Amino acid sequence: MTLRLDLLRHGETTGGSGFRGSLNDALSERGWQQMHAAVAGQGGWELVISSPLQRCATFARQLAEARGLPLRIEADLRELHFGDWEGRDAAQVHEEDSEALGRFWSDPFTFTPPNAEPVRDFAARVMAAVARLQRELAGRHVLLVTHGGVMRLLLARARGLPAQQLLQVEVAHAALHGLEVAVDLSLRECVCPSRC
User: Fold this and answer.
1) Which residues contact 14 (CB under 8 A, 6 or more apart)?
2) Where is 50: in which H helix or E strand?
């Protein structure tokens, strides 16, 4: 049996753009509006799962309460930790070390920013969490409130993209994408979230 997993990225945050990774930014007013708009008219979920970071968990908690759904926090579905790049934007990093930024953009699986979580470890952590969810929740329909990096990883795998193209997957704030997760952890992207 497959797990139907709708992926919802958090909205805009008060911290702005850039490498926010492990920073625990809150949603901005616009971010709240984006997320409410993303789930309007969507549903059928039996459970809401969220990253523990407040830009995901605060909205997930509110949505779960409003719809009478259970909420589960999954620490392994948090964003990639960017190490020394945390809190900085690409322009700042480029100014100081354009070669390092270029290497990360061109192949994030082989270049790790200083003191950051290697993307290979991040991918292993996320896929282990998805495997647990598939075993526990097969046959169910779940909303996962998470981050751009988590969604890029899962969507890239569903689309069969090579590892080097991970950062080319576009995931806007409050984007909603549907996946089916099979027992063998193969992923299939759904054209219409909530309607796989």
Assistant:
1) 25, 26, 27, 28
2) strand 47-50
Sheet containing 141-146: give its strands across: 71-73, 47-50, 141-146, 3-9, 176-181, 187-190
Check: CB of residue 56 under 8 Å from CB of residue 7: no
Assess whether pLDDT exceeds 70 at residue 195: no
Q: How much of the chain is helix, strand and coil, in % rounded to 5?
A: 45, 15, 40
Give how many domains the chain has, as a whole number. 1
Residue tagged active-site, from 10, 81, 147, 177: 10
The range of the structural domain enclosing residue 159 comes to 3-190
Q: Are 133 and 3 in contact (CB under 8 A)?
A: yes
The answer to the question of residue 183 being in a domain is yes
Structural domain includes residue 164? yes
- Active-site residue identified among 12, 79, 117, 147: 79
Contact 8, 173 (CB under 8 A): no
3-state secondary structure 170-188: CCCCCCEEEEEECCCCCEE
What number is the average pLDDT over the span 76-90? 96
Is pTM, for the whole model, over 0.90?
Answer: yes
Active-site residue, 10 included: yes
Residue 192 is predicted with a pLDDT of 62
